[in-house]
Amino acid sequence: MGRYTWDFSVITANWDPLMAGLSVTLQLTAICAVIGLVGGFVVCQMVMSRIAPLRWVAVAFIELFRCTPALVQIIWIFYCVPFFFGVFYDPFYMAILALGMNITAFNAEAYRAAIQSIPSSHYDACTALGMSPLKKTIYVILPQAVLMAIPVLLTNTIGLLQQTSLVAIVAIADLMYEGKTLATQTYRPIEIYTTVAFIYFALSVPLSQVVGLCERRLRSRLA
Amino acid sequence: MNITAALGFLWDYRLALFIGLGNTLYFTAVGLAFGLALGFLVSVVRQVGHPVLKVIATVYVEIFRGTPVLIQLFWFFFCLPALLGMELGNVFSTVLTLSLYMGAISSESFRAALKAIGSEQRDACVALGLPARVSVPYVILPQTVMRAVPTLLSNCVTLFKESALVSAVGMADLMYQGQMIADATARPIEILTATALIYFVIAFSVTRTVTFYERSYLSRMRL
C-alpha cells in the first residue's frame, strides 16, 4: 500500500462532464421529489379511502414498489413499458416515471404514519364545526400530516438522491454515469469514483442535518 | 400474451434463475451476518466509546449512509484493489461492501433502540440497587433487541433489495441472471416480471412478518 500516486488533475480536466452529470442527477432528484410529495399524499388518501377498490389499488401499488429493488423497477420500466404500450419516450422521462413512482410509494407510507398520529379529537372538532370532508382534508389534515411527516419525507428524498445513481445502469448521463465513463476513459478510477462519492456525500450530509434539526424542532414543539 | 407459453418459457430457464436467487440470498445472508455484528459494535462505540473511536464510527456511518450503494460497490471493486495493489476477488468485494453498508444502517437502528428506553427504567434499576452487570443484560439489552427487531428486519429487506446492485459489477445474482436471459432471448417481459415477482414475494413476506410482530408482540408489551 502507499505506492499509488494520486493525481487529481484528471478531475479538473474533466470538470465539465462531471458537472453536466451532476445537473442531470439534481434535475432527476428535484422532479421526482416533487412528484413524490404530491403523489405520496394522493396515494395515502387512496389507502385511507372508504372506497374499497381504490384502497386495493393503492395498497398493491405501495407494496409492489416497496418490496422490489429500485433497480428492478427501473429496468422493468425501461424494457417493458415500450413493449406493453407501444410508446418510447426519452430515457430521462422513463427514469422520472420509475423513480417518481418509487418515491411516491415510500412517501405514501410516511404520510400515512403521520396522519395516524393526528389525535381523533381533531376529526371530532371538524365534524362539530360542520366542515366538509374536502375542507377537513385540506385545512386540518394536510398541514399537520406534512409537518409530522417532514423528517421521513426528507429522509426519503436523501434516499431518492442516492437511488438516482441507478439510472447510470440504463445509460442516462447522470453523475454516476459520467464518473463511470471517465473512469474507463482515463484509467483513473480511484480519483474519479472518490470524487463522485464525495459529491453525493456532500449533497446528502446537509440534508440529513436538516432532518435532525426538524426532528428536534418537532419534538420540542409537540412536547 | 399467452400465459401458458410464458410460463413454459420461464420453466426452461428455472435453473438459471435458481442459481441467481441462490447467489442473491448468499450475498444477503453473509452481508447480514457481518453487518449486524458490525452495526451493534458501532452503535455501542458511538454510545460509550473513546472520543476518537466515536468520531471514526460516526464518520463511517455517515459515509456509508450518505453515498449511493452503487458507488460504494464500484469503489470496492475498482479502487480498493488498486490502492492495496492486490486482487481481492469479486465475492470478497461484494460481501465487504454489503456488510459495511448493512453495518452503517443497522447501527442507526440499534442506536435508536438504545435511546428509546425510558429513563424511568434506568431510575428503577438504580432504585432497586441493581448493578450494571445485572441491569444491562436483564433490563436494557432485552428491551433494546425487542425494540430494534422491526427496524433491523426492514434493514434486512433493504439489504436484500440493494443486493440487486451487485449485478452492475457483473456478479451473477438474480437480477443479473434475469437481465442476461432477457438480453439473450429478447423476451424481457416474462423474465423481468418473474424476477421482480421473486424479489417481491421474499421482501413482502418479511415485511408482513415485521408488521405482525409489531402488532402482536410490541403492542402487547407496550414497548
From TrEMBL, chain A:
InterPro entries (alphabetical): AA_ABC_transptr_permease_3TM, ArtM/GltK/GlnP/TcyL/YhdX-like, MetI-like, MetI-like_sf
All copies of domain ABC transmembrane type-1, residue ranges: 18-211
TM spans (from-to): 20-44, 56-79, 91-108, 145-172, 192-214
A Pfam family of this chain: BPD_transp_1
UniProt GO BP: amino acid transport
Gene3D superfamilies (alphabetical): MetI-like
Annotated localization: Cell inner membrane; Cell membrane
Gene Ontology cellular-component annotations: ATP-binding cassette (ABC) transporter complex
Family matches, as SUPFAM superfamilies: MetI-like
Membrane topology classification: Multi-pass membrane protein
GO molecular function, one term: transmembrane transporter activity
Keywords: Amino-acid transport, Cell membrane, Membrane, Transmembrane, Transmembrane helix, Transport
CDD domains: TM_PBP2
Highest taxon above the source species: Bacteria
Family in the record: Belongs to the binding-protein-dependent transport system permease family. HisMQ subfamily.
Annotated function: Part of the binding-protein-dependent transport system for glutamine; probably responsible for the translocation of the substrate across the membrane.
UniProt name for this protein: ABC transporter permease
Native source organism of the sequence: Ancylobacter dichloromethanicus
From TrEMBL, chain B:
GO molecular function annotation: transmembrane transporter activity
Cellular compartments annotated: Cell inner membrane; Cell membrane
Stretch forming the signal peptide: none
Matches recorded under Pfam families: BPD_transp_1
Membrane-spanning parts: 26-45, 57-78, 191-213
Domain ABC transmembrane type-1: 21-210
Primary localisation category: membrane
Keyword flag Manganese: no
Any single GO BP term: amino acid transport
Bilayer topology annotation: Multi-pass membrane protein
Keywords in alphabetical order: Amino-acid transport, Cell membrane, Membrane, Transmembrane, Transmembrane helix, Transport
Reported function: Part of the binding-protein-dependent transport system for glutamine; probably responsible for the translocation of the substrate across the membrane.
Protein family: Belongs to the binding-protein-dependent transport system permease family. HisMQ subfamily.
Name of the featured protein: Amino acid ABC transporter permease
Gene source species: Ancylobacter dichloromethanicus
